[in-house]
Amino acid sequence: MLAAVVLIAVIGWRTRRWRVIWVPISIVVGVLVALAARTSMNSEGLASDPAPFVLWVWTAVFGATVAIAVLGWRNTRWWRRGLSVLAIPLTLLTAAMSLNQWVGYYPSLQSAWGAITAGPLPHEVDASALPSLRNTTPDSGKLVKVDIPDTASGFTHRSEYVYLPPAWFAGDTPPRLPVVMMIAGEFNTPADWMRSGNVMPIIDQYASQHQGQTPIFVFVDVGGSFNNDTECVNGPRGNAADHLTEDVRPYLVAHYGASDAAINWAVVGWSMGGTCAVDLTVMHPDLFGTFEDIAGDHGPTAGTKQQTIDRLYGGDATQWDAFDPRTVMAEHGPYTGVAGWFEDTVAPANADQLMKTAGLHRPQSSSPSGFGGHDGERDTDELGAAEDLCAAGQAVGISCSIHKVISFHTWQFAERSFSDALPWLAERVQTPGTMGS
Question: Is 345 helix (H, G, I), strand (E, B) or coil?
């Protein structure tokens, strides 16, 4: 509302030439900016679902605001010049808020502020404090920032995080606990599961109900930077797959006494990370025995198949097959002791009817595609991925289940999905005190 009021004051009535020529030109510039942004996003395959219409409206308004400030600068009063400058960050912020509403990246102002200021995460302690906690029973687990060497992979990455449950601190030496590897979505930081996915309260509650026993959780970096979409493969964008299997996994075993048995390792991923979770497990059943795929695709995707081959594999088509989960499963043959949990949203067309039957109402949105960016034309690579991958897995001995939730493709859905699967995950990786619970 503030952005709209300021923009109206900036445009004003002015002269006939201003109204007839320069304002329409500014509007055209704004529309072109929005079209360019939309084309770029679609070309790069940056989103699983169509963006809400309101996002493109505010992107266009932002572009038009910049044009209005430039074209209307001369022969105007000082206060209008000041407002024209103010309108630019206001409209940009409003577009950013529309983007955030779509993906749920920052669920609260506090989480956004924590990310901007690089504030401490829940339960975060310095690694140097861990020895003093040995032989104690802390009320909650501890989160440690780690810099895992990239000796094996050569993958340049950001600091990652390891969560150690209260049970890890009991005794003179760490118990050989199982591990759950946590992978975020396409645009990510290693802290996203804590800030946007809000997993710490979920893990805390589980630990309190199981005498401090949970798996170790490692929150990994698969991008190296915020907008580097590796899809967890090896290629021109970095050897992300090797980093997870040859850097992260041995590091957890060596430095935190984690179990090295495949049955004690699980991978959880959201969106792009869900694709990674399936891929890592079916490619390396000797390293991982369990996965949770939260709204992932059929396989690593960066646009069309040819675009994916070019972008992720440097044009090497053989690498497509090497990292395609269904191809890998078919070529591997029977698996033993591998299981997966797929969780996805109910298609919005069905969700409307189901929510009406349940007496619920769909979240309101100014976008015709609905809150969260979903509409009837969901990304074709995600659509049906859970069913197709589960069927392919069952054909080769992988146990799997599919869970559907009336929701939208947001971090809040990822949070809910992790909470749903955590008891199953903990039992699957043989967390002490959970077997048979």
Answer: strand
CA distance 133 to 142: 10
Lowest mean pLDDT among 8-12, 314-318, 352-356: 352-356
Q: How does pLDDT run across 57-81, given as a tens digit for each residue? A: 989 999 999 999 999 888 788 888 8
Query: H helices within 284-347, ranges in order?
Result: 305-313, 317-323, 325-332
The CA dihedral of 401, 404, 409, 412, to the nearest 10 degrees, is -90
How far, in Å, are 68, 228, 230, 310 from residue 236 at the CA level? 41, 11, 9, 9
Residue 374, pLDDT > 50, answer no
Q: How many angstroms separate the CA atoms of 94 and 11, rounded?
A: 18
Q: Is residue 43 packed enough to be buried (19+ CB in 10 Å), middle (13-18) or exposed (0-12)?
A: exposed
- Distance from chain centroid for Cα 199: 13
The Cα-based distances of 72 to 5, 13, 80, 85, 91 in angstroms read: 17, 12, 9, 11, 17
pLDDT in tens, 158-171: 999 999 999 999 98
Residue 370 confidence class, pLDDT cut points 50, 70, 90 = very low
E-assigned strands of 290-435? 290-294, 339-345, 399-405
CA dihedral for 333, 334, 339, 342, sign (positive or negative):
positive
Question: Is the domain covering 120-347+383-428 a CATH 3.40.50.11030 domain?
Answer: no
CA distance 101 to 94: 10
Q: How far apart are CA 154 and CA 252, in angstroms?
A: 18
* Residue pointed to by tokens 């950001």: 158
Nearest alpha carbon to residue 402 among 346, 341, 345: 341
Buried/exposed 226-251: b ≥16 CB within 10 Å, e otherwise: eebbbbbbbbebbbbbbbbbbbbbbb
The rounded Cα 266 to chain-centroid distance in angstroms is 17
Write down the domain spans for the chain.
Answer: 2-102, 120-347+383-428
- Does residue 252 register a pLDDT over 60? yes
Q: Mean of the per-residue pLDDT values for the chain? A: 87
Are the C-beta atoms of 300 and 280 separated by less than 8 Å?
no
Q: Identify the helix (H) or strand (E) that includes residue 143.
A: strand 142-146
Q: Between β-strands 179-183 and 265-270, what pairing exists: parallel, antiparallel or unpaired?
A: parallel
- Amino acid at the residue 4: A
Question: C-alpha angle with apex 432: 427 to 435, nearest 5 degrees?
Answer: 40
